[in-house]
Amino acid sequence: QQQVKQSPQSLIVQKGGISIINCAYENTAFDYFPWYQQFPGKGPALLIAIRPDVSEKKEGRFTISFNKSAKQFSLHIMDSQPGDSATYFCAASPPSYTGNQFYFGTGTSLTVIP
Amino acid sequence: GAVVSQHPSRVICKSGTSVKIECRSLDFQATTMFWYRQFPKQSLMLMATSNEGSKATYEQGVEKDKFLINHASLTLSTLTVTSAHPEDSSFYICSASRPDPRGRWGTQYFGPGTRLTVL
Fold first, then answer.
1. Structural contact between residues A16 and A79, judged by C-beta atoms closer than 8 angstroms
2. Which tens digits make up the pLDDT trace of A78-106?
3. Cβ–Cβ < 8 Å for A70, A77
4. Interface contact A42-B97, CB threshold 8 A
5. What is the pLDDT of residues A4-57, one digit of tens each?
6. B105 and A45: CB-CB below 8 Å?
7. Cα(B108)–Cα(A92) distance, rounded to whole angstroms?
8. β strands within B4-113, DSSP E
9. Of A100, A82, A87, the residue nearest A35 (C-alpha)
10. Is A103's Cβ below 8 Å from some Cβ in B?
């Protein structure tokens, strides 16, 4: 059973546009939600993460929106650039001092067209 | 930062041989390390979780005798693919868990991955 559902599977956006990737979860014990960016042939890199005490977190062009009641969170990439073309994974975790028990989404392949 | 290295980045071997992949956390001590396998254009498949000084916990369907994991220290874990066969060809990625000093939100940091090709 997929603990975290991610959509869309693939996304094509024009340069300068907004890319939006959505994730949903069921386990109300989850309270840490990171996003990872993976380029072909590389390992995933932590991009941005949010905790449920806030509804939005912004770092540069990347924003996470979090809706606790709906158990959904999304990644928004503003002013998308061709260099943002990568696969993005959302994840969720219950409280854990050690960072165990990450549940990953299935990934979204983003292509930004020049 | 939180840097995790993996070695080798790419390995080609003959069927029947064993291959060892190293994962190191370079600037922090990792309480736990994880090993993932990733097929082209697919998600991360957790293979096993290892804690320093104890036996690894394998996910269902992962052969522990084929994928040997040793977690020798808080900064080093190794994955040995024994008697490798072509179907073991894949992208193997480790991650290291950095504890959260505030007590709740530890985070996984990934290595760059190892591309294994078994001929």
1. yes
2. 999 999 999 999 999 887 766 577 899 99
3. no
4. no
5. 999 999 999 999 999 999 999 999 989 889 999 999 999 999 999 998 889 999
6. no
7. 11
8. 4-7, 10-13, 19-25, 32-38, 44-51, 57-58, 67-73, 76-81, 90-98, 107-110
9. A87
10. no
